[in-house]
Amino acid sequence: MNVPSLAELQEVAGAHGIDALGVARAEIFASTLEDLVERKERGLSADMQFTYRNPQRSTDPTKLVPGAQSLVVGARSYLRDAGDPVPEVEGPAGAVARYVWEDHYQQLRVGLEAVADLLRGHGYRARLVIDDNALVDREAAHRAGLGWYGKNANLLLPGKGSWFVLGSVATDAVLPPGQPLSDGCGTCERCLPSCPTGAIVSPGVIDARRCLAWLVQAKGTFPAEHREALGQRIYGCDDCQEVCPPNRVQARRPVEISNAARRPFVGLLDILSATDQELLDRYGVWYIPGREARYLRRNALVALGNTGSDDALVRRAVKRYLGHSDPMLRAHAVWAAKRLGVVLPAALQDDPAVEVRAEVQRAVTPAPVV
Ligand code: B12
Ligand code: SF4
Ligand code: SF4
Prior knowledge:
Elements: H1 6-15, E1 20-25, H2 30-41, H3 55-58, E2 70-77, E3 93-96, H4 104-121, E4 126-129, H5 137-143, E5 148-149, E6 155-156, E7 164-171, H6 191-194, E8 200-202, E9 205-206, H7 212-215, H8 227-230, E10 233-235, H9 239-242, E11 265-267, H10 268-273, H11 276-283, H12 294-305, H13 312-322, H14 327-340, H15 354-361
Parallel strand pairs: 3-10
Antiparallel strand pairs: 1-2, 2-7, 3-11, 4-7, 5-6, 8-9
Helix pairs in contact: 1-4, 12-14, 13-14, 14-15
């Protein structure tokens, strides 16, 4: 069987909107296996599953395809303009992280599928893994020589920055591997103090228990000590990338899809009034724990509490949630009400749920009125 050249693979990838493509040997990611195990032991992985569920598997590309020899790793830029005009929402807006303004994973999937098809056309096996529990994507990209690990843990492409999603094609074709790049951050440390919760505990190491990007996806109560830091975010967090100097040089791509389909902001009031089905239809591509729409509402209540708004519609929405049947949402509504100076009904002192009563007792800093 003849092997397609890297240039041929790159050409196909480029034609499908993939910005960089490289090759790593399909061999065990030994240092990443150690990192996963060690971070799990230190509690830094919180209760995340993903690649932490089975570190042996997620660091062994040979398990992806029988006889796997190579990983063809692709990076697709997701840096886009917010749009002109920025899509409007009614009432206070919740901020959405850039990587989910559009479904970039799907677009990367289409590109890597074309790469996989080329390999299959030459008689090789090829399997895609993108943001999958079965492979640690950044390490694959690092080994393929696509970029370096920033102190904010993101993989940065030279001259282009970190606004990229990553994915791989595992194949039994033997392809020439790239060389891992050395550090490109130099003396810069801007991302370390930029994190609103201090989640970058040392260069390149994230404590998920404090990372807002994880907390918006985690089950249960949103930790009280990080609610103010959430600000008006509803999904994801970009702070440690926004401050990163190499991220300023990458030219923004022109908008490729209509304003209606792009989502830099969402209406917080809208999230609180929509049905479960509507929320899953609209935001189903996000990681929502257990596909339970209540977690979007939980995040919206915290974000609403942080708006400092004295708008009548905002106060009405919070009051409605003070009487919600779900104790978790009642508790977050109590917090939001206190932040916004909405008077709590006396009956909440005797609420049947202990978490609601605890929230009634909690001291909360009022949000500055805007
Ligand atoms: C779990 C997960 C998360 C978790 C934990 C993040 C984390 N840092 O591990 C949470 C939910 C917090 C998260 C957040 C985000 N994520 Co995420 N996430 C993943 C997932 C599913 C697994 C990551 C993983 O296995 N981490 C394991 C640990 C060990 O890896 P690491 O933190 O990268 O650690 C490396 C460095 O520490 C480095 N290292 C070791 N020693 C040292 C020393 C120094 C000095 C340095 C600099 C580095 C260094 O080696 C380690 C690996 O061995 C991947 C998808 C996948 N299947 O791989 C996406 C992925 C990593 N996420 C991605 C994105 C886009 C994000 C967000 C930007 C989204 C957002 N805007 O909210 C944030 C960024 C947060 C951050 N600063 O890292 C992209 C990253 C793309 C890129 N260019 O790097 C990925 C690859 C998804 C994808 N397929 O594109 N994510
Ligand atoms: S994503 Fe946000 S919370 Fe997480 S490490 Fe970066 S700045 Fe901190
Ligand atoms: S802000 Fe500076 S230290 Fe942090 S990832 Fe970017 S270049 Fe590296």
